[in-house]
Amino acid sequence: MNHKHIPEFAVLGHPNEGKSSIVSTLTEDDSVIISPTPGETRKCRSFPVFIDGKEVICFTDTPGFQVPQKSLEWFRNYSGPANEIVQQFILANQNQKDYQDECELFSPIARGAGIIYVADGSRPVRRDDRAEMEILRLTARPRMAIINSKDTHSDYSEEWKNEFRKNFNIIRIFNAHNATYKERIALLSSLKGIDQEREAALDDVISAFKMDWDHRNHLTAGLITDLLTICLTYKTTRNISGNALEKEEKTKLQNIYKEELLAVEKKTHEKIRKMFKHNIFHIEFPPHSILTQDLFSEKTWQMLGLTKGQLVAAGAAFGGAAGVMIDIATVGHSLGLFAAIGSAFGAGSALFGSEQMAKAKVVGLPIGGYRITVGPNRNIQFMYVLLDRALLYYSQVINWTHGRRGYPGIHADLLNAKNKKKGFTALFTDESRQACNLFFREIQKKDTGRQEIAKQKMQGIIKSFLDQQE
User: Fold this and answer.
1) How many CB atoms sit inside 10 A of residue 45's CB?
2) Over the chain, what is the mean pLDDT?
3) C-alpha to C-alpha distance for 32 and 57, rounded to whole angstroms
4) Distance set, CA 451 to CA 212, 233, 441 (Å)
5) What percent of the chain is predicted at pLDDT more than 70?
6) DSSP string for 317-332
């Protein structure tokens, strides 16, 4: 895309209407300064969007209007060439203190930027708002109006729409705090309608955005597939002397196994977060989110993964039970590693118990000590729990807009309903679960060719799910 044809849009409005939040969300840039204090933005700042190293579009954050009534009076009294009205306003008033913010916010318009006017639809229209809209109409520049409701308890959007229809080419409702990817694309598509001369360039922008999102989903599906592969084949070993305390050594190794898998999962989630450009502000999940629970916690295994019936079906496909398998090879000692939790879940305890998840082996060493190996995991439910957590994390990440600061509120009710699956995998189609089960079976074997085929199919299943979350 040639640099001179890169579309630029200036985001304007009254102070504290959500302009910076709009810019942050549209550019997926969490470095945009967002403050509840009116007038925090005093200088224009441009935020270009780069895809594959090329700038495709630019959004410019601007100060809020300060003297719209006085500025409107100047615009109405102007008698020069119509296409120079913005430049002449800046020349006439750039040295006057009262007009500093107005001259600054008009600077991107003077260089040809389109206009995106932002208004808070949770408050009524005021006299100053009408003056701002009339000024922008008199600029004769392509312009869109956005209603960004900051308070859900009051709604004046119809009043705003009536005023906008007098002054703008396009009107959209767009909440910078919860706009989805599809809503961002829809807004970009609407921008094509404000000026035919920009239509071709914006077509290129939208195409680039879609290809980039698809590529990110592809990479994310690969990350999740790799996570499952590592965790399902992972094992950890510890050599102990004959004088070591048996119980303490078992506990240490069990904790090491869990901590190392948790670290692998955390690293994968972090890569997903950065894949979707959350680079500065970390996503903080509300305390009741299932993602705040430990991977091996009882609550996690209650809420995520397959239902008992689905697990039984998976086990039947393998010609055996779907529950935990523990092999303990003993030489003079029976360690009983990962003792049963108890009868809390009756016959289903093996499906949920974190203590029964790993396969453990104890091998006698020639020097009289022992080598304890924990892993790899043979519980198919472990795969589905890991997968659910990754998919839930992805869902949180893509729905936390960059203009939002605070809890995302997505899946906030995950722990409200007891004994009911709240993940995604229990809702997979039979065909998708069969592909997952095949992956689980093949990944345990040493046939690299069959492993690779199963991984590709698994990645395809995950990619298909990610694409549906747009």
Assistant:
1) 16
2) 83
3) 16
4) 28, 12, 9
5) 81
6) HTTS-SS-------SS
Angstrom distance (rounded) from CA 106 to CA 89: 9
Query: Token match 């399902």: residue?
Result: 232
Count of C-beta atoms within a 10 Å radius of residue 244? 15
**Tokens 């807004």 — which residue?**
187
Q: Model-level pTM? A: 0.85
Query: Domains plus CATH for the chain?
Result: 3-194 (3.40.50.300), 215-468 (no CATH)
Q: State the pLDDT confidence band at 108, using cuts at 50, 70 and 90.
A: very high
* Amino acid at position 42, single letter: R
At 251 the pLDDT is 76
- Burial of residue 261 (CB within 10 Å: 0-12, 13-18, 19+) is buried
- CA gap 227, 271 in Å, rounded: 11
Kindly report the backbone phi and psi dihedral angles of residue 238, in degrees, each rounded to the nearest multiple of 5, phi listed first: -140, 130
> Sign (positive/negative) of CA torsion 202, 204, 207, 211?
negative
Q: 66 and 83 in contact (C-beta within 8 Å)? A: no
**Cα dihedral 63, 69, 71, 72 sign:** positive
Q: How many whole angstroms separate alpha carbon 470 and alpha carbon 186?
A: 12
Longest CA span, the chain: 102
Rg for the chain (alpha carbons), in Å?
29
Q: Which residue has the tokens 């520049």?
A: 141
Flag whether pLDDT at 413 surpasses 60.
Answer: no
Return d(Cα 48, Cα 57) in angstroms, integer: 6
Whether 242 contacts 370, CB under 8 Å: yes
Contact by Cβ (8 Å): 301, 355? no
CB-count burial class (<10 Å; 0-12, 13-18, 19+) for 446 = exposed
Neighbours of 323 (CB within 10 A): 21
Structure-block tokens of residue 52: 């594959």
Give Cα 254 distance to the centre of its chain. Answer: 32
Round to whole Å and give the CA distance between 384 and 257: 19
184: left (phi over 0), alpha (psi -120 to 50) or beta: alpha
